[in-house]
Known about the structure:
Layout: H1 2-8, H2 13-24, H3 28-40, H4 47-57, H5 63-76, H6 82-94, H7 100-116, H8 121-136, H9 145-157, H10 164-176, H11 180-190, H12 195-205, H13 209-218, H14 222-234, H15 253-261, H16 268-281, H17 283-299, H18 304-322, H19 326-340, H20 351-363, H21 366-377, H22 389-402, H23 410-421, H24 426-440, H25 448-459, H26 463-475, H27 479-488, H28 494-512, H29 561-565, H30 569-572, H31 575-579, H32 583-586, H33 590-600, H34 606-611, H35 642-647, H36 661-665, E1 673-679, H37 683-691, E2 696-701, E3 712-720, E4 723-733, E5 740-746, H38 749-758
Antiparallel strand pairs: 1-5, 2-3, 3-4, 4-5
InterPro entries: Adaptor_Complx_Large_Subunit (IPR050840), ARM-like (IPR011989), ARM-type_fold (IPR016024)
Main location: membrane
Protein name: ARM repeat-containing protein
Amino acid sequence: xxxxxxxxxxxxxxxxxxxxxxxxxxxxxxxxxxxxxxxxxxxxxxxxxxxxxxxxxxxxxxxxxxxxxxxxxxxxxxxxxxxxxxxxxxxxxxxxxxxxxxxxxxxxxxxxxxxxxxxxxxxxxxxxxxxxxxxxxxxxxxxxxxxxxxxxxxxxxxxxxxxxxxxxxxxxxxxxxxxxxxxxxxxxxxxxxxxxxxxxxxxxxxxxxxxxxxxxxxxxxxxxxxxxxxxxxxxxxxxxxxxxxxxxxxxxxxxxxxxxxxxxxxxxxxxxxxxxxxxxxxxxxxxxxxxxxxxxxxxxxxxxxxxxxxxxxxxxxxxxxxxxxxxxxxxxxxxxxxxxxxxxxxxxxxxxxxxxxxxxxxxxxxxxxxxxxxxxxxxxxxxxxxxxxxxxxxxxxxxxxxxxxxxxxxxxxxxxxxxxxxxxxxxxxxxxxxxxxxxxxxxxxxxxxxxxxxxxxxxxxxxxxxxxxxxxxxxxxxxxxxxxxxxxxxxxxxxxxxxxxxxxxxxxxxxxxxxxxxxxxxxxxxxxxxxxxxxxxxxxxxxxxxxxxxxxxxxxxxxxxxxxxxxxxxxxxxxxxxxxxxxxxxxxxxxxxxxxxxxxxxxxxxxxxxxxxxxxxxxxxxxxxxxxxxxxxxxxxxxxxxxxxxxxxxxxxxxxxxxxxxxxxxxxxxxxxxxxxxxxxxxxxxxxxxxxxxxxxxxxxxxxxxxxxxxxxxxxxxxxxxxxxxxxxxxxxxxxxxxxxxxxxxxxxxxxxxxxxxxxxx
Length: 762
């Protein structure tokens, strides 16, 4: 195959001769192979050698050769459009080929000729339309492949007005057989006609476009509902909505009511499709609906979760009504958040607004982005403006991404964000500091007032914000380092800048460490003292978990089979064996990590606990659970009761040894129930709540050990009298604001609901 690819590039003259020989060979398989090579790897320099043979192969006896020859011509025409003019006549004949695959290929090539050679467009349009009309009479829902191809070609070539009666005849046939594919294909072809032409054919054929799809509106199947909306969206509203005086409304009042109810559908696609449809009918409908929805939302007290949902739907309306005007969109966003944010409980963050607005701006064209960003960032420079925490986060993200595209001086943007730094809670201060750090790279000099404000903000802040303030103070004066971080960022977005910044911080931190042992708790055989692990990696606390990805494991050794089958055997070996464990033997497997925690905390077994000196048992610090998971109090829910587990049967469905958190988390086969959210309690309180669960066994993975570095990894094993029922995997992120971000995957809905209730999310 490599030789033949080089042949088609013209690199090998003898090889090119071999390729031509394949095209001229009697073997069907060799001809097809040569044609496939041309289709997938076309080059201009092969055209002179093969064009005459391709012309002959268009009339070959075998349909596989004819079909491939058509596609080969289309592929080579990218380099020389004159090929299409040369084969124009044969393509017209192949449109009515006896083999449906060849006829379909000819229709696609005809569409290319129509758009490439204007003087052939009339003949091509007539041929494709004639073929379509003939196929309508032999249409069958079970053999519709050629009809689908014809409709695709007609979308590019255009249906003749004379062929409209045939299209309506096909519509009657496919609607009676509920052929959704042909139905939507037909409506997309009819989209090119105005309502006057379609109305005339309706009267002529006694077939209405709305009547053909009316049954889909009554269906409870969301696919049918979406099909109905798509069909209506494809034709002029004047034909059915009563917007034209000459044509009355076709839909009944109850049908209009059903369509309006779809605005509250739980299906995002159906909601958005309904919005687009109503906007086509009359923009005032959506404007009135939007005003009423904002009024209702601000008139009642709503939980933050419900408020987020309503804001998401309000933004969907703005996405449709605003269109491509970035400045208008920014003004609407400012007004909306100005009305909604005061109603957020406890100055909560509306994450749906952050996600929806930033994604909409990012998906728009460059002119929309610049206009929207410039209008929004002007708010930063207005110190008299009233903005909430959600708007502040949005402005920080926009400043990070678009500061180089707007006309505001970087120093002005930097001072503007700094003005709002101390006026917001810590969860908002972090994105502000990150945006300031990004903008500082473009400043000739950071103003002293900014440095002073950041320094003052860090004095009374939590540990995490102090770290960000120190980071800004250090790096803001190192312009080359900042520019290097920006260059290494995957994009200009705030999350990607944060990721590049954290990589830079880790590289510096790792360079200062003496060895890899610094990342693991060390155990002294003499005193069993604990050495705390290194600092944990921080992430934006308002950002949700990303899709789980496999991370290279740090494990190099596994427990022996005997250790796996007898997890409680350590307690039976006595305290001397437990104290003889070294950090090297404990830091490579999940099971040994669990044993290490039990040894450190004096709860390896009842025997060890009895011999421990109570005066030497200190209360361990739980201030920094996100980076010091091994420093958990003696009543830790993560410690396995060795006496209990040692007596349990090893024949249960789930192995009683330490489970492989990473492989189970990344498996989609058993963990069918998922949940995520914020818990309004600090991580130590979350631990105490989980400890109170009855009938469960728990295991822990430290935050500074793979997988999912930075997350506390908890395995919850639920069991009944007969054995284990299932497992749940919980990942916790730390927050300095006495809250925790969590994500749960489990095998049973009962376990999911129980954990959700404990974490205050039900």
